[in-house]
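Can anyone check this?
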Amino acid sequence: MLGNFDIFLPVVWLLASAGIVMLIDLFSTHPEQARMFNFFTALGGVMLAVVSLNPYWDAPAQLSMRGALLIDQFSVYLMVSILTGTVISMFASISYIKRIGVNLADFLITVLLAASGMLLLVVANDLIMIFLSIELLSFSVYVLTGMHGKSGRSAEAAMKYFIMGAFATGILVLGMACLYGVTGELQLRPIGEKLVEVFRARDGTQYMATFGMGAILIAFAFKVGAVPFHSWVPDAYEGAPTTVTGFMAVAVKAAAFGALIRVAVVAFPLGASPSGFFGDLGFAGYALWLLSAMSMILGNWFAISQRNIKRMLAYSSIAHSGYLLMGLASAGGNSEAYAGILYYLLAYTLMTSGAFAMLVYASSGGKDVESIDDLRGLAWKKPAVGIGMAIFMFSMSGIPLTAGFMGKYFIFANTIAAGGRYTILGVIGIVMSIIGAYYYLRVVAYTYFRDPDDKPVAGKEDWGLKFALSLTVFGTVFLGVFPQSFYSAAEQSVQEMRVEQQAPVVKAPAKDDPKVAKD
């Protein structure tokens, strides 16, 4: 089937299921029956998408749509993370979406469209497909953010996200135009090869190429919520429906990092710099170093003072972006470093999805959990829920026997092993992770060591939410106790990308080169 059709089957299944859900909702005469039928139709589409990934696991990289898509094991690993986050969000939303007055069919269709854009983004192999995938993803997430029609904050968050996203998209297109103007290529591999020639020639065009690389990095930094392009994150996370926030936090981040890794590895030459200012790091390495350091420091710093738990998790997400950027900045051709990033993305998907699902479960009286005070004594009302919340917070803070601990270990170890300036970055990450443990453990303290209130715990009959929580708790613990198989799969997935696709290294010319003296 893969050889006969020049299509990407996982996306076909998602789009087909979205279309079926739309038709069912349009022609149904029994809304309640159609509601659950829509859910299982959407779930079936996601499951078929997962199954259709199976032939790609052991197969070599395959081009599709005339080279616009490149499906390899690296993208398959990321797609599993994205689809996992999608399934968890869908299960957690069965009753929650109805409670806030949103049609489940509308929610499922938009989630499936967003997931389609995410899958296309991680396999995009040229500039046009990257742009189209980001637009499909972004507009779907904008709609999801403002889907809570009865909430003014939801509409405000969607508008802010949309306006800032439009600016980021404009910057992305500007960067792509610069790279196309310099190289005359659209596909990533040829762009990387031409950029090597541009930076070696030192004829003045390297400045335009550097500007293009910088603009693309800014656009991706916006998508992953890295400082200083993070201002949309707290407002969007707070205003969006809670399950949508969980979906945004994990699936969007996984897709954006997947595309950023591929672009950085394949299209941006290592050591490329318009002048000697950036040293051995090159422009891209220097920019990633700064983005990582600022995101870790400011993300944790602002999270400490937050009383609103969704804003706290928003700033926490910014800090996690810093940890991931640290791994990318220090990778430098090391397959183990890229494997650490992929493992961390999978761990982050499970523990963050679980944390937001737990907030839905803790909601009472039809009102979302807003403050940390709303979690007082939760462990005494529902011991299992208290244990689950503790596991998620322990994992985010990096306590052993959790997925978060192993993810941080892989990234920190590879960063420090890279030496030089990266050792400083690794030390910053370790210190910030210790500081971050304070506000994570504060949540656990409120659930166990504060007197409970008299509000009932909602969600007793919500089987979908219970399933989502069970899946995320089990996955967070399992990845922490048995990390090697997942890490080995991640390392294997990046081998092909590193060997087959990496752009060459730009070596500095000799000091007596007249072009260097002129520059």
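Reply from J.R.: I decoded it. Confidence is low (pLDDT under 50) at residues 499-503, 508-512, 514-519.
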